[in-house]
TrEMBL record:
It comes from the Bacteria. This is FAD-binding PCMH-type domain-containing protein. Residues 1-176 form the FAD-binding PCMH-type domain. InterPro entries: CO_DH_flav_C, CO_DH_flav_C_dom_sf, Diverse_Substr_Oxidored, FAD-bd_PCMH, FAD-bd_PCMH-like_sf, FAD-bd_PCMH_sub1, FAD-bd_PCMH_sub2, Mopterin_DH_FAD-bd. Pfam families: CO_deh_flav_C, FAD_binding_5. One of its GO terms (molecular function) is oxidoreductase activity. SUPFAM superfamilies: CO dehydrogenase flavoprotein C-terminal domain-like, FAD-binding/transporter-associated domain-like. The keyword Oxidoreductase applies. Transmembrane segments: none annotated. Keywords: Flavoprotein, Oxidoreductase.
Length: 290
């Protein structure tokens, strides 16, 4: 860390100037929970660190035009405590609750969770299931929006250029008929990275007891989180009964089998996902009479 030049912009305009100096060896520094450890372990040796902690314009959560707008520097603690997030994107709040420890939740940011691109990053399956998009700014101040699948290209890899920074996450608000939840394998207290996580979003018709617009985000299965369109197709339009809960569990197990064939963790994960699927289903429907 000693050799890196640390730039400390105080606002977006200074951030743009800082990005102009960035090289492929430079790094954005948010909460530092991943990055500082990577530097200490000599896994990376950046020439320039662009520290976002002074850019207060990136630390907000607001509801506007039927969308949640979350600044990249919003922490897990802010996200889990936000009334708006709990009301309109519950699975994201639940994913933030289950992150690491208090210290990590207080320092770690949503922008850093995406930028880190860990296959086990907790907010990522939730954001994918919520059909979130990220706003990205470059050194000229140009802004573009991308979905997470475009940004995260592999384990620890993103498509972001060295002069680009995630500034905001935009999430379409779920309507009243929607339910969402997040489940993760592992204890709530242990400071560990999830080895399996699921975000589940769906529209529930309580008269017909049917579900539609089902969205399943999966993490820690393969190199990056993904939406399981196959399982979504199987669930769409069906009655939300105990039988379907079992179909969900069994089909997710098939997904694991297809995603990581031959991997040493396969026998464990294809069983573990069933329990996690049942947990998620129970959480989602515990408020309902089926
Ligand atoms: C003990 C411990 C426990 C943890 N537990 C969990 C857990 O349970 N769940 C989980 O998901 N994660 C966990 N993590 C990982 C980490 O806390 C998260 O990934 C966190 O979101 C990282 O955010 P940060 O602000 O600290 O990012 P940083 O460490 O500052 O940055 C991480 C990466 O993202 C890039 N980056 C940061 N912000 C931006 C931005 N705005 N635009 C573009 N790139 C950016 C950085 O350049 C860097 O490559 C844990 C980490 C530790 C050390």
């Amino acid at each position: 860390m000693g050799k890196a030049v640390v730039l400390t912009p105080d606002n977006l305009s200074e951030l743009r100037d800082a990005l102009k100096q960035a090289t492929p060896k430079s790094k954005i520094l948010a909460g530092g929970t991943d990055l500082v450890m990577a530097i200490h372990k000599n896994r990376i040796n950046p020439d320039i660190l662009i520290d976002l902690s002074g850019v207060k314009e990136l630390k907000y959560i607001k509801l506007e035009d039927n969308h949640l707008h979350i600044g990249a520097m919003a922490t897990f603690t802010q996200i889990k405590e936000s009334e708006s997030v709990r009301k309109h994107a519950l699975c994201l709040a639940e994913s933030a609750v289950l992150v690491g420890s208090n210290q990590i939740r207080n320092a770690g940011t949503i922008g850093g969770n995406i930028g880190n691109a860990s296959p086990a990053g907790d907010t990522i399956p939730a954001l994918m299931a919520l059909e979130a998009r990220a706003r990205i700014m470059n050194s000229s101040g140009q802004v573009e929006e991308k979905d997470l699948n475009e940004i995260i290209t592999g384990s620890g890899k993103t498509s972001l250029g060295c002069d680009q920074v995630i500034t905001e996450i935009i999430i379409p608000v779920l309507g009243d008929a929607y339910r969402s939840t997040f489940a993760k394998l592992g204890s709530r207290t242990a400071v560990t990275i999830a080895r399996l996580n699921i975000a589940l979003v769906m529209k529930y018709d309580d008269t017909a007891n049917t579900i539609s617009d089902v969205r399943v985000g999966l993490g820690a299965i393969g190199v990056k989180a993904f939406r399981d369109r196959r399982v979504e197709g199987i669930l769409n339009g069906r009655k939300a009964d105990e039988h379907l809960a079992e179909v969900f569990a069994e089909e997710l197990s098939v997904t694991v089998q297809m995603a990581i064939p031959g991997r040493y963790s396969l026998p464990y994960k294809k069983e573990a996902i069933k329990g996690l699927a049942r947990d998620a289903w129970r959480q989602l429907f515990s408020r309902l009479v089926i």
